[in-house]
Amino acid sequence: MSLLCSTIVFPLLILLLLSPVNGVGINYGTIGSNLPSPKKVAQLLQSTIIDKVKIYDTNPQILEAFSNTGIDLIVAVENSHVANLSAVQSAADEWFAARILPFIPATSIVAIAVGNEYLTTDNDDDKLDHNALVQAMQNLHSVLLARGLDRKIKVSTPHSMAVLASSFPPSSSTFATTLLPIMTSIVGFLADTGAPFMVNAYPYFAYRDNPGMVNLEYALLGNATGVRDPKGYVYTNMLDAQIDAIRSAVNALGFGNRTIKIMVSESGWPSKGDKGETAATTDNARTYNTRLVERAQSNKGTPMSPKNSIDIFVFALFNENKKQGGTSERNFGIFNGDGSKVYDVDLSCQFCSSNTNDKTGFSFGEKASLRGPSVWCVAKPHADEKVIQAVLDFCCGPGGVDCREIYENGDCFQPDKIHAHASYAMNAYYQMHGRNYWNCDFKGTGLVTFSDPSYGRCFYSQQ
Length: 463
Fold this sequence. Notes:
Layout: H1 10-17, E1 24-27, H2 38-45, E2 50-54, H3 60-65, E3 72-77, H4 79-87, H5 89-99, E4 109-114, E5 122-123, E6 126-127, H6 130-146, E7 154-156, E8 158-160, H7 180-193, E9 197-200, H8 203-209, H9 216-219, E10 227-228, E11 234-235, H10 238-255, E12 262-267, H11 282-297, E13 311-314, E14 376-379, H12 385-396, H13 418-432, E15 446-449
Parallel strand pairs: 1-2, 1-13, 2-3, 3-4, 4-7, 8-9, 9-12, 12-13
Antiparallel strand pairs: 5-6, 10-11, 14-15
Keywords: Disulfide bond, Glycosidase, Hydrolase, Secreted, Signal
Domain X8: 375-460
Protein name: glucan endo-1,3-beta-D-glucosidase
């Protein structure tokens, strides 16, 4: 029978219009001799609120371990490989074919970070070739474009705050004069391709380097009194001020009318440091990262752009005992290599089924539960009805979904509305095919939700 189309039923409409809770990202570094296997890491993260992981290479064991987990990965081109990928596009294509292609789509790779703080990193006392960075990014994007993957996988590069001439006041911030040409090229590339501007933002270092001028509670994301910008913005924490400083610098390049999402690709606080690093304590690290996780989930913007939510990646998952530098560099982890907690941060996932782990951590000796059954796919409430009808026809036809429940006399027939019927079918298809984000795309009409859309006797399937 024909499935009628109209607007979505009121209860489901309310559900879909609710602001979603953002997931939390985390940086997974591997410069340690005592770290668990990637497979164990992937298993344990599935029972947490962590839904995005950034790594610093294309370690095949990690990429394989995260297959079919529902966790998105950002992979990286190491600084030492940037020049090679910039030379010719064929080099970028060979890199992609060898490092990435064998693992997708089972592993959800959503971005490639080209280098890390490349513009402010010295290599054997010689600065890295700035132009090579842009060319490598362009070459990789061209590879993705040729393979039809440019919408799924974005290309960007993480910057340190050192790319700014100054970061305060936020509204007056600009990029360093010597970096203006290269930053103009990079920001233009990000605007054209829809990729995020990645920034590694650490209030800890700002406080450590100038404790007499920076309020500790402000650096720890908790200064209720606020710091005022000359243009009227009020900042209750330094991280938001750092984000808006980047935003101002981007706008100063002439991109204020373009949509460029800012992502905090790293932020964290060490639990231990060398003499003089008095703020590197377990208590401060717990306070900062607890507030950072809450900030990541808040779906809030910043004073300068309150409607634009910020993706945040906590640094880091583990203490890395082989990392170079001072003591603090090896003690940014929330967990030790054996899986024990350095301190308590609540990463428990109320949406994850059969979650047997405690609220503050997990054990590598336990079998981690999967997050997937608690995630659903539904139709966007204002999606075009013609597209929704085509999606519905596909799901109930070639897509292989059993749609009897949305036929007349089925438990999900009422409300007899196109969006309601499509939501049921789209979710069934999504669950059947592994809950990868692209299985809920449906030409941009699908929406992943953590809230169960079931109602009455109509039950939406879970894998």
